[in-house]
Amino acid sequence: MGKNKGGNVPKHVAIIMDGNGRWARKRVMPRFMGHRQGVKALKSAVRYASNQGIATLTVYAFSTENWQRPQEEVTFLLDLMNKTFVQEIDELFRENVRIVLVGDRESVSPEILEVWDSAEKRTAENTGLTLNVAFNYGARQELVKATQLIAEKVLTGEMNLGDITSDCISESLYTAHSPDPDLIIRTGGEMRLSNFLLWQAAYSEIVVMDVLWPDFNEKHFSHALDEYSQRERRFGKVPVKE
Ligand code: IPE
Ligand code: IPE
Ligand code: MG
Questions:
Q1: Is residue 147 a part of any domain in this protein?
Q2: How sure is the predictor about 241, in pLDDT bands with cuts at 50, 70 and 90?
Q3: Residue 18 catalytic?
Q4: For a Cys-Cys bond, which of 24, 46, 99, 102 suits 34, CB 3.0-4.6 Å?
């Protein structure tokens, strides 16, 4: 697949990978089969993003609310995440991908933390695509955590109230190392953010697609990039040619 036609490639694309359960249900399969197939779609999306020259890809893999799913689905998803990292880490390393886990580390098991840490450490010096994996991620939890960090600095005198700026908040989030997403793609057709990147999405372009995540391929990705390149981003200003 060639480079995006419009030439206006977003620096940071974030994806809400939704629709695994529906994909499975349509085939009269258990939900977990949809999650397993979803990993294949993720692998091809990572490769495609990298080939298109996108600098950062953030994928929503498991939300802070997803713990409320049936125990067996949660266990399956945690296990799938671990296995996928173990299986894919060599190839991701070779492809020069830098992996960063964005999410709450405090409430996950030491076994999972170990897998996260080793994936991050192994790829920390890579200079290609930055792949932010949002796992145990919730934007409200992220903002609560950032608020606590900032409040602590004010209390200890390390910072003054006046130092709390918009940049200071951005720098206190899990995504501090990344620019705000230019484009957010949501598969599965729902028109909502589901607690994803609430602060960072202030001026993101949003493309919602009906395709279910396991079916998402290069053609869909390319379509979303084309759609993005046709958007006029005004950031609250008046149109350029008026
Ligand atoms: C997205 O697919 C994957 C996760 C949230 C982990 P879903 O499992 O939400 O699939 P649907 O929305 O029920 O089809
Ligand atoms: C959002 O999908 C979370 C992920 C894709 C990981 P959900 O399926 O959890 O969101 P809702 O419940 O439809 O809002
Ligand atoms: Mg869903």
A1: no
A2: confident
A3: yes
A4: 24
